[in-house]
Amino acid sequence: MKKQVEKLKKYLSLVIIHIFNCFPTKKNKIFMFSYYGSQYGCNPKYISEYIIQNTPKGQFDIVWAFNDFKKKDHLPNIRTVKTMTLKYFYELCTSKVVITNFRTTDLFVKRKTQYYIQTWHSSLRLKQIEKDAEISLPEQYVHMAKKDSKKCDLLLSGCKYSTNIFKRAFWYEGEIFENGTPRNDLLFNHDPLMKERIFNALSISPDCKVVLYAPTFRNDSNLAVYDLNYLGLLKTLANKFGGKWICLVKLHPHLMSKSKELICGNNVVDVTSYNDIQELLSISDVLISDYSSLIFDYSITRRPCFLYVPDFNDYIEQDRNLYFDLLELPFKAAMTNDDLLNEINLFESEKYNTDLYQFFQRVGSFENGKANEMLVKRIKEVCFSENGRKINEAV
Q1: Could you list the residue range(s) of the whole structural domain that residue 228 is in?
Q2: For residue 45, what are the CA distances in angstroms to 41, 125, 140, 378?
Q3: Residue 118: which of 18, 218, 47 has the closest Cα?
Q4: Which of 112, 208, 219, 272 lies at a C-alpha separation of 20 to 30 Å from 322?
Q5: What is the separation, in whole angstroms, between the first and last Cα of the chain?
Q6: CB-based contact 309:292 (threshold 8 Å)
Q7: 162 and 206 in one domain?
Q8: Alpha-carbon distance 117 to 101, whole Å?
Q9: Of 191, 212, 208, whose CA–CA distance to 199 is shortest?
């Protein structure tokens, strides 16, 4: 019965889409959503905010889609819609530009007059993705991903290494925009007012130094891998780098209900519900992670990053293969808490910066803090210029 209801909903949605696709597209309208409407974040957020801050008021009509509509009705200079409503389909179907950071479903029936920008949700991956990891992905997702890539007009890349992955594994043959990752522009800026705002929001004393622990999710739901020795970590950081330290812990959203079991201790703060990881990276003096692509984003800051991977061997065997040998990255990897504290004590800033430079050269980084500027320039061409019409015709 449930499957029949879902099938009927999809059929009715496609009828609505067919009707709205007969309406003219609005050349300055940009439709955005992040992680299927679950948040205001990632690359679409930073593109949206750059447009608002750096283009004439009214030049673009920005529409964001959210699943939880009531919590998102306070965004300035942005119109919002609730996903899967009539208004949602109307705005989606009549937008000139559509921007998201994840795959779209069959309920985005792209028109010839539309321009679809896929930002993806990482600048560089550690875990293999898409075709490279096809054997571990659900068949339904692979089918959706292939169809999504055919709709895509522009795919963003943060480095040459990612471009090569996309060419091989993304089922995509279109243009790859090699100008960096919009959300990473923030990490090039040193905004004391933003830092003050974040510290106030998290009730952190302005004289504190911050270590952020941001591990990724495990498919086997093994909670033992998050057994970080917070007390020892804070003492070691204070001895090594000086100052008073506080630890922010951002677990994967899937673990939000478990955070109270995993996070405890003095000067340890649960920030799992904080909605913008990029802001947390920007205020952190040290990052500790594991297999998350956040490590590559954070490397832009040149601040110390360490990997705590007590399940390294099991993870490689049970989850996806990695694009890099974890032990050859610029970030020191530790299998135990004692190893982690030892790596912090042995940290050498000069060697770390040299290793980072060599890594950036190896992957061919495009990150320079101007990703939003370059992308919005392209969007203007698509929406308003003769060159933009040629771009649309080409795709």
Answers
A1: 191-363
A2: 5, 20, 28, 17
A3: 47
A4: 272
A5: 41
A6: no
A7: no
A8: 9
A9: 208
Centre a 10 Å sphere on the Cβ of residue 66 and count the other Cβ atoms it contains.
22
Please tell me the distance from the alpha carbon of residue 346 to that of residue 349, in angstroms, as a whole number: 10
Domain match, 336 and 380 both:
no
Could you identify the residue written with the tokens 């705590």?
Answer: 308
Residue type, 192: P
306 and 345, same domain (yes or no): yes
Query: What is the tens place of the pLDDT at every residue in 346-376?
Result: 999 999 999 999 999 999 999 999 999 999 9
The answer for residues whose C-beta is within 8 angstroms of residue 202's C-beta and 6 or more apart is 248, 269, 271, 274
* pLDDT per residue as tens digits for the range 119-137: 999 999 999 999 999 998 9
**Does the pLDDT value for residue 169 go beyond 60?**
yes
For 286-333, the pLDDT digits (tens) are 999 999 999 999 999 999 999 999 998 888 777 668 999 998 999 999
pLDDT at residue 71 tops 60: no
Domain count, the chain: 2
Both tokens of 15, joined, read 């009828």
With contact defined as beta carbons under 8 Å apart, do 145 and 124 qualify? no
Question: Do both 241 and 343 map to the same domain?
Answer: yes
CATH number for the domain harbouring residue 222: 3.40.50.12580
